[in-house]
Amino acid sequence: MARAYHSTVSAPALTSPRSTWAAWLPVVAWAAVIFAFSSVPSLATDLGTWDTILRKIAHVTEYAILGALLTRAVRRPGLALALAVLYSASDEVHQLFVEGRHGSPLDVLIDTAGALAGVIAWQRLTARRARS
Questions:
Q1: C-alpha span between 62 and 47 (Å, rounded)
Q2: 3-state class of 85 per DSSP?
Q3: 4 located within any domain
Q4: Less Cβ crowding at N or C end of the chain, within 10 Å?
């Protein structure tokens, strides 16, 4: 019978205040990094098309990290993805209030793809650890 990726961790270890801090502190710190980047009035460069490509790669990367951290914290991939999508949408709304920035539904989709990649990567990593 296949074991769930989190079954090797005991219940008391998951519910202690120390483990809660250890699980959520990286999530909050990374969300703060994303918020800080979103608060910068303009991240544009003179690179033309490359500017757009690099910014979209940055979106995927930052949300892949968030997706992995959320999966680590909540241990439920679907919930982790939903939380990442909600944060992405709130981040795009935040950008509507930052001079020189704009919110974009396309960016939410790109962020969602990144978060999904992070969730999948975390699941594979923990599954590999459980097998070894």
A1: 21
A2: helix
A3: no
A4: N
Residue 69's Cβ-count burial label (10 Å; 0-12, 13-18, 19+) is buried
Percent of the chain beyond pLDDT 90? 64
pLDDT over 90 at 91, yes or no: yes
- Contact present, 63 and 86 (Cβ < 8 Å): no
Tell me whether residue 2 is in a domain: no
The mean predicted confidence, pLDDT, of the chain is: 87
Number of domains observed in the structure of the chain: 1
Residue 105 is assigned to a structural domain of this protein: yes
Burial 32-66 (b: 16+ CB within 10 A, else e): eebeeebeeeeeeeeeeeeeeeeebeebbebbbbb
How many angstroms separate the CA atoms of 25 and 59, rounded?
21
Query: Which tokens is 53 given?
Result: 């490509």
Interval 58-77: pLDDT, tens: 999 999 999 999 999 999 99
Could you tell me the residue range of the domain that residue 51 belongs to? 11-131
